[in-house]
Design a protein that fits this description.
This protein is of the alpha/beta class. 40% of the residues lie in helices and 15% in strands. It binds 2-phosphoglycolic acid (PGA).
Length: 254
Amino acid sequence: MHKPLIIANWKMNPATFAEAVLLARKIERGLAGIRGVEVVIAPPFPFLMEVGRVLKKSKLGSQDIFWADIGPYTGEVSWRQLKEVGAEYAIIGHSERKLHIGENDEMINKKVRAALEHGVSPVLCIGERERAGNDIPGTVGEQLKNALRGVKKSFLKGLIVAYEPVWAISTMPGARPDTPDNAFRALVYIRKTITRLYGRTAGETVRIIYGGSVKAGNIASFLREGKMEGALVGGASLDPKEFVKIVRIAASNR
Ligand code: PGA
């Protein structure tokens, strides 16, 4: 069993440098004395360095990564540059990037491979846009398979799969968190898919977390009943009190 992993995905927030540093400081202060949990903060690119300086208990993550190390790729940020500022994790393939930027499976695959091969842990986001009933749609497995194409088994240790049903993300119209039962179904489905691709040990040990309207009020159920190993937290990660509460509950639910 891994320690629970709680990742703050700040998305394109906050607006200013000062607010970002303050938010990171408040979170860090709140984390003092909490043990047995891993915390990652993923601020926007321009704030990575300064936020990174504030972090002691938590690790630094980025919200995206590019596959090449250097060169003519206007607007992109490479794995090498991210490592340079101390980012150890990179969120990859978030549904908002697919929706607004047109990121596709092939790009996601290149990013996952580059991250894994260069020692940055990818937080690979997969999840269906819609779901009818309780069955996890096959598109989730397809996303996972496509993202892992060409990834060697020996690299899987660094991988984190974030199951985020898109309809459950708090900013989606009519959003509601998934049920812990369904999260568990997704977990089993993801483990089976990995087992089919890489064998049983890999399937049983890959780290899987849940994302989608996670709050202090529901985190325990995703960890306990959903058997998820952590959470990717958007909206609630911008509220330091709520976020620290989530971390504290996760730490006591090991
Ligand atoms: P949410 O976002 O916690 O606000 O639902 C999660 C995410 O999009 O990563």
